[in-house]
Specification:
Helix content: 55-70%
Number of domains: 2
Order of helices and strands: HHHHHHHHHHHHHH
Radius of gyration: 27 Å
Structural class: mainly alpha
Distance between the termini: 42 Å
Length: 382
């Protein structure tokens, strides 16, 4: 002992009984005997494996958002008039099953008011979009649940992370129910879903995506050194995903009201930068939610705010010598994503919302949100 610790061995007494930090006893870490196999720490976790799994799930959720946009743009969302969470996995397999599905569709407003005279072949085209959307939702549930249970019961998941991931699973289940609640609104009297329910469905998908991605980023970039060194810049970076989220919600209202099909000029609307008659409804606060022209105007104005905010944060990152390479790259990616997204938005408007451009615009929004979250996490971790 004298040679090992570089001093005289301690005399027996209270100091030995109480233990010495790092040597043994009740207040220190026990020393392993030579040749002994160290015991595994309970719930040690596998952060990189868990992070990889979460990134895969986040990518699938992003794909779900894109497929949902295509389903809406192709007017396919009301083609499946029933919701069977389990048996609905199996599509129609023969002509009789297809005829039964088509006849069920014919009893609802979209067929009577919009698609009267549609043949079975055209029905199949819209059916497959909605079916693929619902099937992907189920696939995401399985891809999330099975690895989660495996990580949990094999003790490869940090116990502090388990409640958060369980909460994500609950949100995913709620998203499925909310999706049907949205579809149901278009099966009553008007062949169009409620733009409020559509926006809520989109908003919850975005929340789930951001929650999963942020959790994965925390696992690969742990720590909070950057938050202490650059609190102001970090707050500015955290504001960016919040602004993008709000803009995506406005995009949901714009889509639900078909507001992109009017005032297809830029930068002016009806010949003016600020068009007249933005508040025709009473009370006034209904207009940002229910007036086509006002919703599109708000979507345009917030796009300018997002662009300016990104430019300010990017400039603050570039002028700081202590920003670090990872943070600088993330800031450059955010700038590139916002320029791409604004360009896609303008093109989609001027071309009167063609399906390919509109789908790319929705994908650009997910990409922009992703880069802002990456930047915020990079700044937080240091």
């Amino acid at each position: 002992m004298t040679e090992r610790f570089g001093g005289a061995a301690p005399a027996a007494g209270p100091a030995v009984a109480g233990g010495m930090p790092g040597i043994g006893g009740r207040s220190g870490r026990p020393q392993a005997r030579p040749g002994a196999v160290p015991a595994a720490r309970p719930w040690a976790g596998s952060p990189r494996a868990v992070a990889l799994w979460l990134f895969v799930v986040a990518a699938l959720v992003a794909g779900m958002v894109l497929l949902g946009g295509v389903t809406r743009l192709t007017h396919s969302g009301l083609s499946m008039v029933q919701w069977h969470p389990i048996s609905g996995v199996v599509p129609p397999l023969d002509r009789a099953a297809w005829q039964a599905e088509f006849q069920a569709y014919q009893h609802y407003p979209e067929y009577r008011d919009v698609n009267d005279g549609m043949n079975l072949r055209d029905f199949k085209r819209i059916f497959w979009f909605e079916y693929a959307h619902r099937l992907l939702g189920r696939v995401i549930g399985v891809v999330f649940a099975l690895p989660f249970l495996w990580f949990l019961f094999s003790r490869r998941l940090d116990r502090r992370l388990a409640p958060r991931l369980a909460g994500i699973f609950v949100l995913g289940a709620a998203q499925g129910a909310l999706g049907w609640y949205m579809v149901e609104s278009g099966l009553v009297s008007i062949p169009a879903v409620s733009h409020f329910r559509l926006t809520a469905h989109l908003g919850l998908a975005i929340v789930i995506f951001a929650f999963i991605l942020w959790t994965g980023l925390e696992l690969v970039w742990p720590g909070s050194g950057g938050a202490r060194r650059r609190p102001g810049l970090r707050r500015g970076a955290l504001a960016l995903p919040a602004l993008v989220f709000l803009q995506m919600l406005l995009g949901g209202l714009t889509a639900g009201l078909h507001a992109g099909l009017t005032d297809n000029t830029w930068p002016l609307m009806a010949g003016r930068f600020i068009p007249a008659h933005l508040f025709p409804l009473t009370p006034w606060w209904l207009n940002p939610l229910d007036t086509v022209e006002t919703v599109q105007f708000d979507h345009r104005m917030l796009a300018y705010i997002v662009l300016i905010s990104v430019l300010l944060v990017w400039w603050r990152v570039r002028v700081r010598p202590d920003a670090g390479r990872r943070v600088r790259i993330a800031a450059d990616l955010v700038l590139a994503a916002v320029v791409l997204q604004v360009s896609l938005g303008i093109a989609t408007l001027l071309e009167v919302v063609p399906v390919p451009l509109a789908a790319m615009h929705q994908g650009g929004a997910v990409l922009l949100l992703t880069t802002t979250l990456v930047l915020a996490r990079a700044l937080s971790a240091g």
